[in-house]
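Continuing the batch. This is chain 6 of the set; chains 1 through 5 are on the previous pages. Same settings as before, nothing changed between runs. Recording input and output for traceability.
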Amino acid sequence: MSRTEAFFDTNVLLYLLSEDTTKADRAEATIARGGVISIQVLNEFTSVASRKLQMSYPEIREVLETIRAVCKIEPLTVETHDQGLRLAERYGFSVYDAMIAASALEAGCKILYTEDLQDGQIIDSRMTVQNPFND
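Output for chain 6:
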């Protein structure tokens, strides 16, 4: 799979820091192949890492630097927002999940790695949701 065919939701990145070594290893292997994330993913990761994981900003920057080295960053645009609203309405996604899916579609990704949506679901006949932690 090419670097731009896969999009990673925030939860996949957060498993890099998990005490569950099986999930941490799976997340690392999946992300190491490369893919795409959005600015929203960077912001959500930072929020959870600082608030829930009590990481310092230098520690967060270090982890994000590694992630940014292997992932293309998809910008947030008005078009992404509009697409996200359409997806939220059409599929019943939360607004935040819809914005992640919209960013992935805008980037031309074929796979959205996430735990938050239905594994195997096909979005707009162009992208498949895949839970990277399912066996």
